[in-house]
């Protein structure tokens, strides 16, 4: 009698277990109810609109994950530090924004797999023509290059003077010795900057041999000097001697509060001002309250590009130096049992044509 009762019970239990295994998405949605999602405004990853709606890459990713896992959710806006704290304290289930995965944050939070890789970058304000001209003459690289050119011209001119000044009236036409030495320097300078002279313009055999050797050397030398000078003049129009993060030590610098940019500057002992959000950070740079700002490369380029389209921040530019790789991930409650399901959905969406199209739309030059 007992066995006849337990068999249907066992069958029902087995059927329930099979249904849960076959429909994990439904069980996840039922177990969590409405998922509490926190957001931090960070274009183009999270773009908050006046009607309290959200768009952006991170929002698109979360919407597709929620659709894949059949989750209902509510999104609320928070500051960056508040977002991190609220997920860590359990007040929020998920954090969606441009949040970098760091060891320090991993101590109190979980993260999804990385869904976007970027770097830190430096933005500056283009200088006016007078300031640019001044910076060129105070640019250390330019001064070193010019010094090397003059030194090489003096050596070459001196050698030619010793070899040719008694025999070559064409190249050394001045009567005084000082004037002939000046002619020798001019000859060396022309040789270094212009290239080889005619072989037969020199009377002595050593002079002609030196001409052939220098002809080979100056071909490469002139190309190298031209490239260095072009780079120096181009960067001179941007901001004096900033070649990377180490050059920020003697400048007034800004970064977003509680961001990886601020942590990087603190770690490298670079004194800086902190700003509540990226918009006030860009405004401070445009108003010349700071000389340079540090933020995520993708965010800086997107915001400056969009601002220029509307006639704002036309003199701001991102320098061509990227450093300190950043990996963005969704913030998850610590020890969340649903992390694996979320990550599987994330990886699936990252391979989709829709995600690749979204990347192109936001970041196409």
Automatic annotation (TrEMBL):
GO terms for cellular component: membrane. One of its GO terms (molecular function) is ligand-gated monoatomic ion channel activity. InterPro entries: Iontro_rcpt_C, Solute-binding_3/MltF_N. It comes from the Bacteria. SMART domains: PBPb. PROSITE patterns: PROKAR_LIPOPROTEIN. This is ABC transporter substrate-binding protein.
